[in-house]
Amino acid sequence: MSENIRGKVRASDPETSHVAAAGAVKRSATIRERVLLILQAAGRGMTHDEIISQYRRQASRLGWSPASDSGIRTRVHELVERGSVERSETGAGRSRYGRATILWRAVAVQILETAVQAEGEN
Predict the structure, then answer these.
(1) Which class for 71: exposed (0-12), middle (13-18), buried (19 or more C-beta within 10 A)?
(2) Number of folded domains that form the chain
(3) Residue 30's domain is classified under what CATH number?
(4) CB-CB neighbours of 68 under 10 Å
(5) What is the pTM for the complete model shown?
(6) Structural domain containing residue 35
(7) Which of 8, 29, 88, 95 gives 103 a disulfide partner, CB atoms 3.0 to 4.6 angstroms apart?
(8) 10 Å Cβ neighbour count for 58?
(9) What percent of the chain has pLDDT over 70?
């Protein structure tokens, strides 16, 4: 099985599988871009639950395609791997169940906050 811009398919898979995989790759890229926009617009760290909730609000308001909770979490992970998103070191959030959870932020936001903190120390 290979993965590329066409998705995860085998050469022996039927054409319908290739078409479906290509569509999934495109949808994943679109959702990934929208998740990054949500984090950039927030200007602060967000929990997975907050990102998912905001995605759902925007999807309803703007007609975005639906995405599962796990799909949105996967897109956050992909953004972390690409260096566009990172774990915020400025505290922890709370999940919808009240447990401590990681805050995620767009890298540009983290860099800006670090610069402001450094300036304040001088």
Answers:
(1) middle
(2) 1
(3) 1.10.10.10
(4) 10
(5) 0.72
(6) 13-121
(7) 88
(8) 15
(9) 70
